[in-house]
Design a protein that fits this description.
single chain, alpha/beta, Aminopeptidase, Alpha-Beta Plaits, 8-stranded mixed beta sheet, 28% strand
Amino acid sequence: MRDRWAKILNQKTKDISDELIAIRREIHRNPELGFEEKATSQLICKKLKEIGIPFQAGLGKTGVVGLLEGQRGGKTVGLRADMDGLPVQEETGLPFASKNPGVMHACGHDAHVACLLGAAKLLVPLKKFFKGKIKLIFQPAEEIDLGAKAVISDGALEHPRPDAIFALHVNPELSLGVVGLKKGPMMAAIDTLKISIIGKGGHGGAPHQCIDAIVAASAVVMNLQTAISRNIDPTKSALISIGTISGGQADNIIASRVDLSGTVRTIDPDVHQKIPKIIERICTDTAAAFGARVSMKYKKLVPPLVNSDEMIQRVVDSSQAILGLNSVSEVPAFMGGDDFAFFLNEVPGCYFFLGMKSPDSERVHPLHHGQFDIDERSLPIGAAILAHSALAALER
C-alpha cells in the first residue's frame, strides 16, 4: 500500500506545485483575522468547486468543510487546516506581502490551507481506488483559540463523524524534507490569567497612610514564578508569563489598583488541573502581606494537544513513504498551543510539524515574527503527506 500510494502521489505533486505556491501567495497577500476570513473562505470554496468536491460553508462563521467520497463502505478520515492571520505588521518585503496593514500570515496558516487544498487535488483522481470518505476541514480563528470549538459546535465532526483526523503546522526550526512528531502531549494547554491588586490610594508624600498596589503587584509578579520553581515537579513543564501590567494615575499619587494579565502553559494534565489554585494562593497571600487584596479571573482556553500512538504511526509511515526513512524526527513538547487539541479530544488523530527551513538559508525567523516566511517547496510535501496519511488510515 505504502509504495503504491507514494509513487502516485509523488508523481502528481510535481504537477500541482506551482498552483499551491500561487494559492499560498494569494492568501498571504490578503490575510484576515479570526472569524473575518471571508476572502480566504471564498477562495477555498472556489478551489473545491473547481476540483469537484462538495462543501458546506459558514461553519463557525467562516469555516468550510468539504467531503470527498470514495467507494462505498469504509471509514471516514478528517484533515484540518487553520486559515486566520495575526495582528502583525509584515516586514518581509516580499512581492506578495500583506496588503492589509497590521495583519500578516506570520504563522503559516496560508501554507496550511494550500497544503490541504493540495491534498484534496491529489485525492480526487484516486477516489475510485479507496473505500470511505475524507473530510476536509478549513477552520477559522485558531490564533484566538475559538475556531475549533466553533466549527465543531456547527457540526464539522458530524455527518459523517471521522474515525481519525490529521493536521500539520509548518516549523521554521525543522529542515525542508523533515517531519517532526512526538508521542503523547505535544503542545501545551493554554490558560489566561487576569489579576487585580486592590490597595488604598493617597498622596505620594504620605505612603504610610496608603496601601501601595504597585508595590504589592511587583511582589506578586516575582512570587508567581515560585508557582513553577517551588510547587511543580521540576520534571514537568509549565510556565507563567505576565504580559501586561497597568496601574497608577500620576507620579505623586500612590496607586490604589493595579491590573495584571498573563498566560499559563502546562503539558501535564495533573499540573493543568492544580495550577489555578496554586496561583490564587500565591497572589492572595502575597498581596495580603502588603495589606492589599486580590481579585482573580482564571480561564482555561485550550487543553493539551495529545496525539494518538496509532495515528502517529500512520504519519510516520506516510512521511517515510513520501520522503524516505530518515525523514521523521522526534521533537520536544512545545509550550505553544493549538486548538486542534479540541478535535483530538473528540477523535484519535495526529498533529505533526512540517519542516520548511531552507538548506541555503542563513537565518530563519520564528513564528509570529514580522519577517516570517517559508520555503515554498514544503507545500507539495505537506499535501502529499496529508493525502497519504488519510489513505493509510482508511486502509488500516
